[in-house]
Specification:
Blueprint lengths: L3 E8 L1 E5 L4 E3 L4 E2 L3 E5 L6 E8 L7 E4 L2 E3 L4 H14 L6 E6 L9 H16 L7 H5 L13 E4 L12 E5 L7 E7 L9 H11 L2 H22 L3 H20 L10 H17 L4 E5 L5 E6 L3 H11 L9 E3 L27 E6 L5 E6 L1
Parallel strand pairs: 7-9, 15-16
Antiparallel strand pairs: 1-6, 1-17, 2-5, 3-4, 5-10, 6-9, 7-8, 10-11, 12-14, 12-16, 13-14
Helix pairs in contact: 1-2, 5-6
The structure holds ligand DP6.
Ligand DP6 binds next to α4.
Length: about 375
């Protein structure tokens, strides 16, 4: 048998309305719906080269060149479901690479599982709804199965069949909306999302109120904000939801501290900047770690980068900004920077990735 092979890529996504807490650990069913933006694969993606031939006697996975076990419930669930649905049982070889530093503490599992499920579905020529399969790898991975603005519907069925993601608006809907990822730390997080949310479900009295009474309305409001391309409303809802997620982390026993001193400085900077501008020009959101993801419109990117560079002076001048911008100009610095009330913090930010909204998984090559 000749080698059959595919190469595919899948994106990272950032939740604006967060998923935190499961109602079923095994099926990975969330307490609440969530909504994310898919980031441009130009800056952040996982690429998989997957092949099969008669010489392969067992499944194997490498991530960035290093061997990785497939013998975990999450991988096994994805592989078994894909095999059952396609009726294909040949063994596969998977080489997975990230185009961004894995050590940067950026959500690589969402892109990783989305890419695994998409590339195997291509190899097995399986044409069906795939987000529910990716969800079994990692909850947030189901949202990486689509581009643009994506909602993961909580669903109501106990078998999880209706807990799927779908595209709310396409990647072209709001091209002025840009994203700056401020990499604060490249340390591995102290408590993983999976363990952290388990602890919150067990101990936080606030988590159910959030899931039942706050998120449903917030999802409606943010969809309206996106449909109207209303930046102020989008940024405010995103910041409130990030803060509420971290409030639940604090309401957890023992508490989960994902933000650090630099994250708090970034939060202050964003609010002071918006005050100085007398309009909302920046929004932030933080996942289970100290790195910030800022929302900004294209016309303000240069000014914001100049402010970040001023408040977080760097020893990494050459590569401080990567992606759609790769330099910072002091001439873009506004006169009011000194009245932002934030004390400069040397090397608080390691580097900044300038990206935008992008497409869902892509088939790059196939030979079947
Ligand atoms: C804070 O999807 O990593 O990033 O389902 O256990 O794999 P598991 O968790 P994961 O959790 C992501 C949590 C979050 C918020 C979000 O992406 O919605």
């Amino acid at each position: 048998m000749t080698r059959r092979e595919v190469e595919c890529s899948a994106p990272v996504n950032i939740a604006l309305i967060k998923y935190w807490g499961k109602r079923d650990e095994n099926l990975i069913l969330p307490l609440n719906s969530s909504l994310s933006i898919t980031l441009d694969q130009e800056e952040l993606c996982t690429t998989n080269y997957v092949y099969t031939d008669t010489a392969i006697s067992q499944d194997s996975l490498t991530i960035n060149g290093l061997p990785h076990s497939l013998d975990t419930p999450r991988y096994l669930s994805c592989l078994q479901t894909l095999r059952q649905l396609s009726g294909r049982h040949e063994r596969v070889w998977i080489e997975s690479t990230n185009n961004f530093p894995t050590a940067a503490g950026l959500a690589s599992s969402a892109a990783g599982f989305a890419c695994l499920v998409y590339s195997l579905a291509q190899l097995f020529q399986l044409d069906c709804e795939l987000s529910a399969i990716a969800r079994r790898g990692s909850g947030s991975a189901c949202r990486s199965m689509y581009g643009g603005f994506v909602e993961w519907k909580r669903g109501v069925l106990s078998n999880g069949e209706d807990s799927i993601a779908y595209q709310v608006f396409s990647e072209d809907y709001w091209p002025e909306l840009q994203v700056l990822i401020l990499v604060v730390s490249d340390q591995k997080k102290s408590v993983s999302s999976s363990h952290g949310m388990q602890r919150s479900v067990k101990t936080s009295p606030l988590i159910n109120t959030r899931a039942e009474s706050i998120v449903p309305e917030r999802i409606q409001l943010i969809k309206t904000a996106i449909s109207e391309r209303n930046f102020e409303s989008l940024a405010k809802l995103t910041m409130m939801d990030s803060n509420q997620f971290h409030a639940i982390c604090m309401d957890t026993l023992p508490p989960l501290f994902y933000l650090n001193e630099v994250s708090h400085k970034i939060i202050n900077m964003v609010h002071r900047y918006n005050e100085q501008c007398s309009e909302v020009r920046l929004g932030y959101t933080f996942d289970a770690g100290p790195n910030a993801c800022l929302l900004v419109q294209k016309q303000h990117v240069k000014q914001v980068l100049a402010i970040i560079h001023y408040l977080f002076p760097t020893s990494n001048e050459d590569k401080f900004v990567i992606g759609k911008s790769n330099s910072v100009s002091p001439t873009d610095l506004p006169a009011f920077v000194s009245s932002l009330g934030v004390t400069p913090h040397k090397d608080g930010i390691k580097y900044v990735i300038h990206t935008a909204i992008g497409t869902g998984p892509k088939l790059l090559k196939k030979n079947l």
